[in-house]
From TrEMBL:
Subcellular location: Membrane
GO cellular component terms, A-Z: membrane
Protein name: Fatty acyl-CoA reductase
Function: Catalyzes the reduction of fatty acyl-CoA to fatty alcohols.
Keyword set includes Glycoprotein: no
Thioester reductase (TE) domain segment(s): 38-308
GO MF: alcohol-forming long-chain fatty acyl-CoA reductase activity
Membrane topology per record: Multi-pass membrane protein
Amino acid sequence: MATKVLSQQYQQIEHTVYNDDTEKSEIQKFFFGQTIFVTGGTGFLGKLLIEKLLRVCYDINKIYVLVRTKKGKKENDRFSEIFDAECFEPLKKKYPNFLQKVQLVNGDCLKPDVGLSPESKKMIMDEVTTIFHVAATVRFDQHLRSATYINVRSVRDLLRMAKQMPQLKGFLHVSTAYSQCPKDDIMEQFYSPPITGEHLLNVVESLKDETITKITPILLGNWPNSYVFTKAIAESVIEEEGRGLPVAMIRPAIVTTSAKEPVPGWIDNIYGVNGVTAGAGLGILRTMPADPDKYAELVPVDFVINIMIAAVWNRAIGMSKEHQNKTIPVYNYVLSSWQILTWSKFFDLAYKYGIECPTTKAIWHFCFALRPNPIMHELAHFFLHTIPAYLMDLILLCIGRKAIAVEGYKKVKKFLNVIAYFAKRNWNFGSENTQQLLSTLSQKDKELFGFDLRGHSIDNLIKQGIIGGRIYLLKDPLETIPEGRKKFLKLKIAHYIVCGFALYFLIRIALLVFKSMF
């Protein structure tokens, strides 16, 4: 009965499709007839940006999507890779022929001019009116050369192309709320970089990989990894190269599952907190280095898409000759500007809703805790991750299968060390520009492109995220919830039996040691 109710609650809001109205909103009117160029269109943000533009602003002329060429892959295969995702189902129902408005363009942000051929570059420069630069490397441990090419050079090259685009109306760059993470206060402004974009490019282009690796810690300084460091440098490139252009920049925090659109709870990756909740639900992640009282700056992906669209619209309509030298607007989009959510509350709610719909793919009972103390976390990692990993590999080898657990948990440890920096700190984010942007939207645009998180239920967001993770990440449909609950109970019993035996043997060993000493 509970499963049926949960399924009905989820499906009531599952496919949000706006009906066509005779009167278009201001943002819809702005995008009428536009030709758009999207980088990062195969990623999480990019897919939902394309989906939203086509579903709500179908009167656009065309969307060019930058994609990397893959050996043996035909164009139809690349279309399928992008548009077979569940997030496009509402769009397919509303506009079955939407692919007529999409054209893939071969390129690569690792290469100069984002890898565009001379013909493609000319086409983009002649036809495009709005650019959404979403592409970025999201690997925190990316080699500095690659991170610089993808996150810095691509920005510079696109802006230089934009200067030669006669029809350009808007350029939106997606940064990150943590680009200036060495600072305690992050306002909606540009900051002086530790090194200019040109200087950094000269460094990585003139040195060998081994040398770059050696000097990377010196270059990073107070930045914890190459991702946020190169994002900070990219912002300075935006400020320098974007003068006189209709450029806007947003800094979203930790982007998580969709709140409402196009389907609630949609997710297609295990980066960041998505990987943590999935790993905990599967029973393979049991400790996380985080301060329970620090803020979990989670923002739903569909709200991020909305502020991206609103930001480029607002910049375009306010851009006139007398305004061309005005400061490029920066928008911080973080949860704490609207509501407060701590890591402790987040995982309490995740557990609450996780046990309502446990996955059938769990391999062990939920046994997860936040540990702010690094020593306690390392001990927990050793006893709860490393030792079980060796035991699992021993079993795998005994049955003739490849040992994978130890190597897997080494990657887990690396991942946890990366996110610890962000889960143990709070920042004071300014949001005046973001609040002002919201106030400029008409009532209709607030309904279509709203990003106000004040009235949105955090409980509901996390609940949808847990359900969405089960469906879209773990590929475990709601119909298997009864089976998942049975497995949850069995694993719970097994867990406490193992804990009981472990405690028994520890006591026996302690007694033997005690007797031998006296």
